[in-house]
Amino acid sequence: MEFAIFGAGGIGAYLGARLADAGHDVALVARGDHLAALRSKGLRVESVAGDTAVDLPATDDPGEIGPVDCVLFTVKAYDTREAAADLDPLLGPETAVVSFQNGVDNERLIAEAVGESHVVGGIAYVFSTIESPGVVAHTGGPARFVYGELDGSRSARIEALDNALSECAGVEAILADDVRVGLWRKFAFICAQSGMTAATRKPIGAIRETDASWRMYRRVVEEVVAVARASGVDVPAETVEEWVAFARDLDPEMYSSLHYDLTHGKRLELDALNGAVVRHAEAAGVDVPMNEAVEAVLRPWADERAE
Fold first, then answer.
1. Are residues 102 and 149 in the same domain?
2. Which of 114, 144, 177 is the last residue of a domain?
3. Domain tally for the chain?
4. What is the H or E stretch that residue 132 is in?
5. CATH number of the domain that residue 127 is part of
6. pTM, rounded to two decimals
7. Looking at 177, 205, 229, which one is the last position of a domain?
8. Is the domain of 26 the same as that of 91?
9. At what angle do helices 179-200 and 239-248 cross, to 10 degrees?
10. Rounded CA separation 166/160 (Å)
11. Do both 102 and 188 map to the same domain?
12. Structural Rg of the chain based on CA atoms
């Protein structure tokens, strides 16, 4: 298959390297120092699942790539609308645009730009970041990628994507029956983990050891599940217990990408996380005081750094 990785950062570049190693044609869309390094030195992945190095075409102009079978869309959520407007050169009649991003609104925003028929839902469970320009570090997580057509159909293109990802070393590939459930299920966890580690400036271990903070962590998950169910997404009731148990076993020093961005002066994905919970809750008529509190604490930082 022919792939374009739109936003070849920690997640996108990891997938791009694994797909290239499996024999697929991959081109990277990136920018800045990372793009310069990809062009001059190639891409290196340092991974707990095995290192690799690949030399792939890299550009900041999708027009240099042309139509592909599949676009893996992995930009930060706050860049979704702007980046989606640049997708047209990559699209053929059946091209799939798979969003592996944080949040539950990206698919809608992409569809507004390219049409709903192109959009595929995706969920990434992987801890992978740009270690330095041209170098991606995969430090943990199952490297599990879940994906599916938004209407639940088993189209030829989703079967082809499933076959391609299933061939990749270092990738656990799962074709979902209902990807919307998966999107909201992960959303419940990431809003708690990201929101709480960023709001407290503490790792998960300190949150677990502080009764009030640990109760709040759980309530953030509960609220997101309630919003999902009120919005017509049948997230399983056991999701809350599963995520609390999962968080209980996490490395006590684990933070989140939102905490990293907050403490390193970067723009925040708050609008796609706890801010999105608040918006969806208002539409669904659900009270979410814990998510409102997280948003309120982080809002000055998010607004200050908004572009």
1. yes
2. 177
3. 2
4. strand 119-132
5. 3.40.50.720
6. 0.94
7. 177
8. yes
9. 40
10. 10
11. no
12. 19
pLDDT tens by residue, 222-236? 999 999 999 999 999
How far apart (Å, rounded) are the C-alpha atoms in residues 296 and 242? 27
Portion of the chain with pLDDT greater than 70, in percent = 100
- Do 185 and 272 fall into the same domain? yes
Instruction: Please name the residue ranges forming H helices in the chain.
Output: 10-21, 32-41, 80-84, 106-114, 156-166, 179-200, 204-209, 211-230, 239-248, 257-263, 274-284, 289-305
Residue 234 has φ and ψ, to the nearest 5°, of -85, 65
Give CA 145 to chain center in angstroms: 10
Q: For 159-213, write each residue's pLDDT tens digit.
A: 999 999 999 999 999 999 999 999 999 999 999 999 999 999 999 999 999 999 9
Query: Whole domain around residue 153: which residue ranges?
Result: 2-177
Find tokens 């509960």 and name the residue. 222
Nearest to 57 by CA among 83, 31, 26, 88: 26
Are residues 232 and 128 located together in one domain of the fold? no
Residue 57 has pLDDT above 80, yes or no: yes
Residues 168 and 191 in one domain: no
Look at strands 52-54 and 58-59 and give their pairing. unpaired
**Which residue matches tokens 């009731």?**
237
Residue 283 sits in a domain of what CATH number? 1.10.1040.10
Work out the average pLDDT over 61-77: 98
Give the best-scoring range by mean pLDDT among 62-71, 136-145, 249-258.
62-71
50 and 62 co-located in one domain: yes
Instruction: Kindly state the average pLDDT of the residues 101-120.
Output: 98
What's the rounded Cα separation, in Å, for the pair 124 and 232? 23
145 and 75 part of one domain: yes
Question: Locate tokens 């750094």: which residue?
Answer: 305
Q: What is the pLDDT confidence band of residue 290, given thresholds at 50, 70 and 90?
A: very high
